[in-house]
Design goal:
single chain
Length: about 55
């Protein structure tokens, strides 16, 4: 999983403390899902780039 970014930390502070429209557990699960998704996308991107470089 990728590290928390400054923007993600700001967003979490905003939705958890300033405007809590949904449960804290929901927001934390969503943040966790988002970071896992970003990590998968990053790995797929690097793998695709690597495969393109290895092709003749």
């Amino acid at each position: 999983m990728i590290e928390l970014t400054v923007n993600e930390i700001r967003r979490l502070i905003n939705v958890l403390l300033i405007r809590p429209t949904r449960s804290i557990a929901y927001r934390l699960r969503w943040s966790n899902w988002r970071r896992r998704h970003q990590a998968r996308a990053r790995r797929a991107h690097y793998a695709r780039r690597r495969n393109l470089e290895l092709q003749p």
